[in-house]
C-alpha cells in the first residue's frame, strides 16, 4: 500500500514551489547511460525515511517499501512488473503454497536460499517475523482486527524449508496469498533477535515480552537514518541490493548484492535514488540529462516532444489505486458534522471529478466513485460505484444542507436548527456551527495545488469554507494519525497525500486496512458495522459478489471524499533502459532494470 510521491538543491536553498534554473537538479550526478549505474528520480517531496521491512503508520511511503524489498525479499511477492498483477516467484523466498482442501491451513515451501552472510534462510526466519507481528500488532500498519495475525491460530515448523500456518476458518486463498502472505518478510533471526545492541542473539522473540523488546530495539535502530549504511543490522540481507549510502536528505545509493542467490539478480551495479523538493526541480534535472528514469507532471504533457528529442521515452504509469481525502470523524470541532451522511453527500456533490480529471490532470486521471480502483477493468467494481451515486451539482449540495437545518450567512452555511430530526442538523451538531473545514495537503506538486484550489472554489458555491495548509507528505502522514477527540493531535480535519494516488492496493482490493473499524490505515476512524461484515465476507468467499457489495456500500456511505485517481506518474525513461513493466502496485524494482543498448 501506499500513499505515494526531495535532496536539498545543491546550487541553492529553495522552498517548495520555487522555479529553479535549468540544470539545478539537486544533485551532482550525471546521467549514467552505462551498464554500471542508473539515476532514478524519487517522487517530489517524498523522502525515503525507513529501512525496516515492517511498516508503521508514520512510514507508509511506497518508496520505503520498494527500497526494503530490494534488501529483504518478501515471502510471497505480488507485483505488476510482468504487465499483470501476480505472484512473482523470482522475487519471492517461497516457491510454493499448498492450501488444505478445507481452506483452513497452508503449507509453505521455501527456496534453497541464503542470507548474504552465508547462513541459510529457514522457517525460523519466517517464525521470527510472525512472533514480532503477533506481539506488536497494534503498531504494525498492516494490522486490521480479526485479520493477520489474529486469524492465524498457529505456526508450525515442519523442517528448515517447510512450515504450516493454520487459520481460524476457511478463507479465500487468492486473498490470503495476495493480501496477507505478501506482507510477510523473512527476517534474519540469527542477527536481529536481540533486545539491544549489546545483547546476544537468542530466542527472545518466542515470548511476548521478549518480542516487544526486540521490536523496540529494531524500530529504534530504524529511526537512525544516518547509520543505515553503517549499522550491522542492515548488512544481513536476502535481496538483490544492499545500502551503500542513505542520506537524511533523501538520496539513497544501492549497490548490487554479490552474495544474492535468488531469481532477480541485479543487472545494474549501482542505483542512485535521487530526491527532489519539487517536481520543477526534477524536471530541470531531466532537461539537463542528469536523470535516467524520471517523470513529468500531467500539466507538462505538452512538452513531451522536448523530452523525446533528448533521447527519452514518455511512459504513463497506471496505478492500482484509489485517491481520496479522509475525514477525521473524531475531530472535536467538525467530527459531528462529518458523521452526518447528508453532510458528506453535500461535500461529494460539490466535487467535479470529471473536470478535475480532464483539466487539472490533463486527461491522465480517471474519476473514482468508491473504494475499488476504476482505472483498470476488474470484477471487483460494482455498478453502483461505476454509475456515481453523487453526481456533481453545487445546487443539489446546497439543498442537502438547507434541508437539514443549515442557512447560508455571509457565504458560509451555519447550523440554525440543531437536533436529530430528519430536517435538522443531526446528533452532536451545535447551533451556530459553521461548515468550515481545513485540509492538510501534500506540498511540492502544482497539480495538487491546482486541484485543491479548484475544490475550494467549488465548495464555496455550496457554502462550505475550505482552507488549505500544505506540508511534505511525510509530515502530512505524521500529523494526521488515528486519534481520539481529546488528544491534541486530533485537531486535523481533512488529510491529503495522494498526488500519485492515496492508496495502492495489494492484488485483492479489500478495505480491511482502510475502512474496517480500527483498521491499521483507517486514518479518520471511520466505522460502520455493516461495512465491517462486507469486508469480512469479501475475504472468506471465493465469489466476487461480496467485493462488489462492499464497493456499492462505500460508494454510497462516503467514508472519505472520493477524488480522481491519477496515473502514478508520467515516466520519462532514457532510451535503452528496459527489461521491465511499470508495476501498477506502485513499487519500483531496480533488479529488473537493465541497459539494453
UniProtKB/TrEMBL annotation:
Coiled-coil parts of chain: none
Family classification: Belongs to the bacterial solute-binding protein 5 family.
Compartment(s) where it occurs, according to its Swiss-Prot or TrEMBL record: Cell envelope
Annotated keywords: Signal, Transport
Species name: Streptomyces phaeochromogenes
Taxonomic lineage: Bacteria, Bacillati, Actinomycetota, Actinomycetes, Kitasatosporales
Signal sequence extent: 1-22
Annotated protein name in UniProt: Peptide ABC transporter substrate-binding protein
Entry annotated with the keyword Transport: yes
PROSITE patterns: PROKAR_LIPOPROTEIN
Domain Solute-binding protein family residue range list: 93-502
